Amino acid sequence: MVTRYMLGNEAIAHACLEANIDFASGYPGTPSSEVIDVLRTQKERPFYLEWSVNEKVAYENALAAAWCGQRSLVTMKHVGLNVAADPLMTSAYTGVTGGFVVMSADDPFAHSSQNEQDSRCYARFARIPCLDPSTIQEAHDMIRDGFALSEEFGLPVLFRPTTRICHSKSDVVLGNPGTEHRRGVFTKNPAQYVVIPAHTRVLHKKLNEKQPVIARRLVDLGYNRGWVKGKTAVIASGIAISYVEETIPGDVSLAKIGAYPIDEEWLGDFVRQHDTVVVIEEGAPVIEEIVRQVAGTVTVLGKKNGYAPLEGELSPRVCEAIMEKAGLLTFSPYPSTAMAEGVPPRPPILCAGCMHRAAFYAMKKVYRDAVYPSDIGCYTLGIQLGTVDTTICMGASITVASGISHSGEERDIICSIGDSTFLHTGIPGLLNAVYNGADITVMILDNRITAMTGHQPNPTTGCTACGSPAPQVSLEAICRSCGVPFVETIDPFDLTGTLEVLKEAKQRKGVRVVIAKQPCVITARRAGVRRKRYAVDTEACTGCRACVRYGCPAIEFSEEKASITDLCSGCSVCAQICPVGAIRMEGRT
Amino acid sequence: MNESFDVLIVGVGGQGTILASNVLGEACLIEDRHVMSAETHGMAQRGGSVESHVRIDGIYGPLISPGTADLIIAFDMLEALRYRHFLKEDGKMIVNSAVVIPTSAFQKDLPVPSHEEILERLGTPAPCVIDAAGIAVEAGSILAQNIVMLGAASHFLPLASDSLTSAVRSLVPPKTVEINVRAFDMGRDAARGCGT
Questions:
Q1: pLDDT tens digit sequence for B17-43
Q2: In a domain, B195, yes or no
Q3: For a Cys-Cys bond, which of A29, A57, A112, A247 suits A77, CB 3.0-4.6 Å?
Q4: What CA–CA distance (Å, rounded) separates B40 from A31?
């Protein structure tokens, strides 16, 4: 045993090694990505691992390995589970033989997400066990034991950490990586693996019969526990438990929920020993609904009657305020504070020298009065440049564009989608747009990497998750095979060339694809690409702000003159924009 | 409730706040103490405002509540002002004298408070202002600003200076150990007389 200071996701990854993991797959998504990233670079235990092209693909690969008796992990963010929901729902029927842990990381407050959905609802929907850790150490221990639990129940186990578990750090006690390895063997059993109606009806019944056994076992294992101390109680789950513990008075009972389904008999026993019960949980009122079912005459306070917020994330202060409102605390131990006013906001921004900014600039120049559906990636930050009109979920740029085009909208429609997102769920939308005769331009922002989540390789990169060489997929060939007649690849740092191709695309009808190709500036720098920086000739600068409007963080402006900081990576686009030629490569006059 | 020593490290994505918080965490391990921290990851890092919460001897969750931080280490003056309300009444602030003006402020021509105005608004107790860039360059690399700031903050941390230096040695790239240790020592010297 060893104690290390580590990120929640690192601790989760290490626990998989301790649990003799044989197979891992996933699709990157904040806050889940580091689990596979740690596993793919570790040297302690060899096993099969892949970054898959989307969550459904990842899920089915890992499920199959578990069918072959291997201990298998699939990781994704909460919205990724929507993509994987199809196999999720029916894999509860088929069950598994090898331990199968499905990590779906939730993001209350949507720090880096398009919604605040609660993965626990999926576990309830699919009727599979769900583990919900309250600390990093607990996350580690739950994953370590989760594979065996999955084998015991013969079901996938959903593991649901939140951002404040995944992206927090603490001292964690680790065990040794396991040394057992299983070779997969597929044992044919159509009654289990072929879900034709005659089989699936039987499997459904078996799944339902497992439920009370699972609920009871989770109590026996200590995942759900209560301490009775008075006539009022708090029932909390996840990281909220630690927030509650910071201020809960000594005479208030506490029940900690760490796993689902919750045994209603146990819960009812705990609840009915109190007059009032306050439920504090992040996300949907999952526990609260069950508490209300078993409460009888006990008063239940929570999200449903306005005591706890339905949205956002909890914090020590919010938990304290809930307890204060419920009358458990008479005063707040936290001082009241006010944020300083008039501090200019500092939202995240596309990097200096990012190819997306260059592509968006050209897009807006040519398609002036157009509709700009977009997608999920760093380039969603193009909202600051006015080139992102819609973002809903992965792959929904092309489909939304074609839907708008068929709606009768008369303006031009040009959508943007990254390489990884295109391969994730963009291709069916493109095929559909061609098939059904949409009139749209698609700009694929191809930076050869899944950048936003931390630069994971994908089929455009040329290597696998573990660094083995892999064929680089041709986006041009994919688009052409979908039937797109106009496919052009451009270098977005060549402004003139980009504008020409976009002008030509604009004149055409039907589906046109323009692929803007240039490596991510961060990966290029890591790979040793160095370009000469640019500087402003202050005498020539007229202070017109054309470069400032470009929005590059390397460009500053003071005393009516622009200047370029050492953030400059030498993309040269600002020099091409400057109407008076005042921006030049350093060292040139 | 406040049994931990709570440090908030704030700055701009890319300035090395995560490495700085890792140094504090590693130093806690060296001293066999519990520690909890929370960080900004993902897209929010891209040049945005970032915060790392570090709770030395922390046993509850990783988040520091507004008005309760014992120490704020700000890598940028604007960020110091943005997070000022996290500081407890007699808490201490160590502030880098540099300001990175947000690009959006240039684009939208937003007013940006001056150095003097920021200092005045940071109020009392007076923050300890450090020229981290100047010191880092003198130590050997502009990139060592985060370690300069930790050196300056070391007077106010409940961790031995030796533990912090050992943590720096184990966490920075091997080729930069000497520069970073020098940066730490110079930062520590620069903050002497900041009212320990």
A1: 999 999 999 999 999 999 999 987 766
A2: no
A3: A29
A4: 10
Q: Do B101 and A344 touch (CB under 8 A)?
A: yes
Does any domain span residue A339? no
Final residue before a domain boundary, out of A501, A526, A551:
A526
Chain B residue with the nearest C-alpha to that of A380: B43
CB contact under 8 A, A4 and B29: yes
Q: How close B84 comes to chain A (CA, Å)? A: 7
Domain around A321: 224-325
**Count of A–B CB contacts within 8 Å?**
166
Is B140 at the interface with chain A, CB within 8 A? no
Q: How far is CA A499 from CA A194, A212, A299, A490, in A?
A: 53, 64, 66, 9
Q: Which of A169, A243, A547 to mutate to test the interface with B (most CBs of B within 10 A)?
A: A169
User: Which CATH number characterizes residue B136's domain?
Assistant: 3.40.920.10
> Is A193 in the same domain as A242?
no
How far is A60 from A87, CA to CA, in rounded Å?
7
Instruction: Decide: pTM greater than 0.80.
Output: yes
Q: In this structure, are strands A168-174 and A2-7 parallel, antiparallel, or unpaired?
A: antiparallel
Asked if B49's CB is within 8 angstroms of A167's CB, the reply is no
B80 CB within 8 Å of a chain A CB: no
Question: Are A312 and A415 contained in the same domain?
Answer: no
Which chain B residues are Cβ-neighbours of A329 within 8 angstroms?
Answer: none
- What is the residue-level pLDDT of chain B in tens, covering all 196 positions? 458 999 999 999 989 999 999 999 999 999 999 999 998 776 666 789 999 999 999 989 999 999 999 999 999 999 999 999 999 999 999 999 999 999 989 988 899 999 999 999 998 889 999 999 999 999 999 999 999 999 999 999 999 999 999 999 999 999 999 999 999 999 999 999 886 5
The answer to the question of residue B166 being in a domain is yes
Q: At A417, which CATH number?
A: 3.40.50.970
Provide the domain limits for residue B37: 5-190
- Helix (H/G/I), strand (E/B), else coil: A481: helix
- pLDDT, tens digit, for every residue of B156-172? 999 999 999 999 999 99
Is A373 within the bounds of a domain?
yes
Residue ranges with strand state E in A199-358: 224-227, 232-237, 253-257, 259-260, 276-280, 299-301
Please tell me which residue of chain A has the smallest CA distance to B47. A348
Cα distances from A43 to residues A8, A12, A46, in angstroms, run 19, 16, 7
In sequence order, the β-bridge partners of residue B128 are: B94
Containing A199, the helix (H) or strand (E) segment is: helix A197-220
Is residue B31 assigned to a domain?
yes
Contact assignment for B29 to A453 by CB distance below 8 Å = no
User: Across the interface, do B42 and A111 touch by the CB < 8 Å criterion?
Assistant: yes
Tell me the shortest Cα–Cα distance from A18 to chain B, in angstroms.
22
On whether any CB of chain A is under 8 Å from the CB of B75, the answer is no
CATH number, position A258: 3.40.50.920
B13 vs A contacts (CB less than 8 Å): 348
The pLDDT tens digits for A177-231 are 999 999 999 999 999 999 999 999 999 999 999 999 999 999 999 999 999 999 9
